[in-house]
Structures are given as C-alpha cells and as structure tokens.
Design brief:
about 500 residues; alpha+beta; 16-stranded antiparallel barrel; three-stranded antiparallel sheet; 4 helices; 24 strands
C-alpha cells in the first residue's frame, strides 16, 4: 500500500547521515520527520481498520443479498479509503518538503565550510600517515616608514669617547617580511596531544629570519609544556601597535645605552637570538597559570653589549624565570607577573682592581588589566588595556605605565616612563688602552611621554584578508639633574603605512 511505502521512505530519510556542523537545525527537522512518521503510522492503522470494516460489510452484503445496502456501504467505504489516501498523500508532500529543507541545509553548511577555508586560510589537510594533521598559512607585512632621530641623552652623549650613533638618524625606509607558517598536531580521543610550529620569514633585504619554532605537548584544556622559540604572555600589550619605536623593539637590543629605556617586561618573554625558552601552563576555572624560563646570553638585551658606559663580559648564561597568573571573567582579564634573572654574576666587568662587578641583577614586576567586548560586538565593541611595569636593576630603576583603547578600528594610546640612573661610567686613560680608569657620574632621572595612534582602513579590494594600517607616534624626553636633554633631542616622532595580507 501507499502508506507502507511511505513508511519505508520516511525510515530511509531518517537514516540519512546529517552534517555535524548543522546539528542544531537538522535536529529540528528530525523532530518534524518523527512527527510525520507517527502520523503516517496512525494513517496506516486507520486504513487497516477501514479494510477490516469493509470486509465485514462485504460479508454482510453477501449473506443478506441487499443490493442497495451493498451499494451505499461500498460507496462509504470507498470515500473513507479516499480520505485515507489523501491524508497519506499530504504526509508524503510534507516529507518531500522536509527532505528539500534538509538538502538546502547540507548545501549551505558545505558552502560555509568552503568559504571559511578560502577566507581564513586555516584549513587542515591530512598527511599520508596516522600521525596527525598539518596546517599551512602565513601573512605578508610590508611597511613604508618615516621617523625622526631618537636623540641620545645629552649628559651621556657629551662624555668624550662615549658618543653613540646606533643608526640615530632620520629614517625613510621600506621594510617588511613574508611569513610562512607550518603547524602540525595530533590529538587522541582522551585529550592528549602534541604538536609543533615553525614560522620562517623572508625579509625585504633578502635575509631569512625566524619567528616561532616550538614543540609542545599536553592534555587539552588542562596543561601544556612547550620548548623552543616563542613569546610568553604579553604583560604590556600595545594592541594594534602599528608603529611605536624607542631604543629597541625586540627581545634583543632592547636597551640602547644613553637613549632612554621604556621597560615593558619583554626581557624574559622570549624569541631571543641567543637562547631558548621552555614553559608550563595550566587552566583552572577562570584562572590561567604560566611559568616561562628563558635561557640566553644576558648581554643580548643591551645594544653592543654595553650598559652604563661599560662593556659587559658574559661569564655564564642567565635564566629569566617569568611566572604569570591571569584571571578572566566575561570581558575582563587581570594578570600579574614577575620577570627576574635568577643567575648571579652572569655578566659584568672587571674594575680597576681586577674585581668582577656583577651587573646581571634585573627583576621586573608587572600588572595589566584588559577589557574586551569586541567579540560580543564586532562593530562597536572596544578593547582597552592598562599596564604598569617596574624594573629593579643594578644602578637603575625604571617605571612605565601605559594605556590604549581600540574602537571602530581606531586606536589611541599613551605611555609614560620614568627612569632613575644612579651611576654611569666613562673611561679616562692613555691612548694605548692600558691602565684605563673610569669616572663615576650620577646622571639622574628622565621622563619619556609617548602618544601613539593607528587606524585600520576598510577592506581593500573587498578582500577581508587584505588590511592596510596607518600609524604614528610622538614622543618627548625630559631630563633632570645632570640629564639636560638638548632641545633638538627632546622630540621623537614617526609615521607608517603598513600593508598586511593574510593567507
């Protein structure tokens, strides 16, 4: 019968595999199909009852030989059977509609998956083994820059034999790089996983560099161990930091002797060219814990390995221990950290008496607060950061505080730095370099005030993976005590156009 055929069709439809990514919508359709199946089953039961009644009526007609009654009863039976067939046909129409909707949902989900792969470039492709998946991605970042001189602190620059250049000139440059990233990862059903990340970079000058090169393993959403080249938790985020420059802007050559220093807890964060890092991190409810250890040549922090007028001698590698504790609830994140070298007498210099003077004591403290509603409202959401950092180092104490706000792709930020240099040395000796002596100065304190801004232009060529940024900064340095900055060296400023293409 049609009803039985309909039941078979409905059962086959319900057995059709559904797309996992459309689970919510398909579940609703499954419920509707189940209801239709129940209605069809009920219709089948009613049809069977009608058949039984028709059989009894036919027997009664034959026994009594009542032709008119036979005619009337047969007509009624045919009408009821016609009604049941009509109900079955209506049920079939509804099943066809449900199947059409299901097909549309499956096509839509397939299109969304294909669009995501094309737009985000985050498609995993399986290897020819059972040892995990690989992901290939990258980005292009090219800049057009214009910047003023940095300006060395006058009291230090004027010391004979201590004038520093450090490429201190007006800058008109084109620079940038192309990064190709390869990630590999395997995860088991019990949550255990392991993976790696490698990010080689080719810059505009023809040199090859490296961003991340890290191996990691752990248990998903519980703990992780990683080792290699990477950056740990950012304790002084500049957010959309298109162009903010001081004496240095990487994990190496951060400190340029005599140019001013804005401490941002980067010294033990990682991506060193003279060492590597390892880290253990874990989550617990709203808490995140991280302990990072950076092992490197500690003098790599200083430009030309000089600190306070002295050439540093590296005796053994430093170990920066960097514990971080962060708490996140809804849109608010608060994090605190310590960034300290735990190896004493790692580097320094021999004084006039041949005694080694340790210069490797450096301990930093940081606190950062973040408010982020961008995920909830991509149009009018804001990202705001407030950060503070303090460094207790040999013959120097540095304090920095910064804030920035991003809204509608426009960011405005401010950083204040106050540094207290307690001692500075300059050489006094004969021309042969033998029997040199050093005089100790007390240069004093200085402040650096910096304002920076950036703006992301709308989609270029209607491509959401092609972005253009405009960035600029203005910085002013003022000295106290013996640090009297020359008027021509007070102001520092720059502007940049950045092209960024993601794939």
């Amino acid at each position: 019968m049609k009803v039985k055929a309909l039941s078979v069709v409905i059962s086959l439809i319900l057995a059709t595999p559904l797309c996992a990514n459309a689970q919510t919508d398909i579940s609703a359709i499954e419920a509707r199909l189940n209801a239709l199946e129940k209605r069809a089953t009920a219709a089948e039961a009613r049809a069977a009852a009608a058949e039984q009644k028709a059989t009894r009526l036919e027997q009664l007609i034959n026994s009594n030989n009542q032709s008119q009654t036979d005619h009337v009863t047969t007509v009624n039976m045919e009408q009821r059977v016609a009604i049941l067939e009509k109900q079955s046909d209506e049920a079939q129409v509804k099943v066809n509609i449900a199947q059409t909707q299901l097909n549309e949902i499956q096509q839509k989900q397939s299109a969304q998956l294909a669009s995501t792969k094309n737009q985000e470039g985050a498609d995993f492709f399986s290897t020819n083994t059972n040892w995990g998946d690989l992901k290939l991605y990258g980005d292009v970042e090219y800049n057009i820059d214009a910047a003023s001189k940095k300006g060395q602190l006058t009291s230090m620059r004027m010391i004979p034999g201590n004038q520093k250049d450090f490429d201190d000139n007006e800058k008109w440059s084109l620079n940038g790089r192309i990064l190709i990233g390869v990630d590999g990862e395997r995860e088991l059903k019990n949550g255990n996983y392991a993976g790696f990340r490698a990010q080689p970079m080719a810059d505009m000058t023809g040199k090859m560099n490296l961003d991340d090169a890290v191996f990691y393993f752990g248990q998903r959403d519980k703990w992780q161990y990683k080792i290699g080249r990477y950056e740990a938790y950012d304790m002084f985020p500049l957010n959309q930091d298109t162009f903010v420059e001081y004496s240095g802007n990487t994990a190496n050559d951060l400190y340029g002797d005599g140019f001013g220093y804005i401490y941002m807890m980067k010294e033990g964060r990682g991506r060193s060219s003279d060492g590597g890092s390892m880290m253990v991190n874990t989550h617990y409810n709203d808490w995140y814990f991280e302990l990072n250890a950076l092992v490197e040549d500690g003098t790599s922090v200083f430009k030309d390995n000089e600190y306070h007028g002295r050439k540093l001698d590296n005796r053994k590698n430093v170990i920066y221990m960097r514990p971080v504790v962060a708490w996140q609830k809804d849109n608010l994140t608060i994090a605190g950290a310590i960034d300290a070298n735990v190896i004493s007498k790692a580097y320094g210099y021999d004084d006039e008496n041949g005694k080694f003077q340790d210069q490797s004591r450096r301990t930093g403290y940081g606190l950062t607060v973040k408010w982020d509603t961008l995920a909830d409202d991509p149009i009018n959401g804001i990202v705001a950061n407030l950060s503070a950092a303090y460094l207790d180092a040999k013959d120097e104490n540095d304090f920095s505080i910064g804030s920035n706000v991003l809204w509608r792709k426009f960011q405005l930020g401010y950083i204040y730095a106050h540094n207290d240099i307690k001692a500075y040395y300059h050489k006094s000796g004969n021309n042969s370099g033998q029997n040199d002596t050093y005089l100790t100065l007390n240069p004093g304190k200085y402040n650096i005030n910096t304002v920076f801004a950036s703006y992301e232009l709308p989609n270029i060529l209607d491509m959401d993976n092609f972005k253009t940024y405009l960035g600029a900064y203005y910085s002013r340095i003022d000295g106290k005590d013996d640090i009297n900055v020359h008027s021509s060296d007070k102001d520092r400023y720059g502007a940049r156009i950045r092209f960024k293409y993601l794939f």
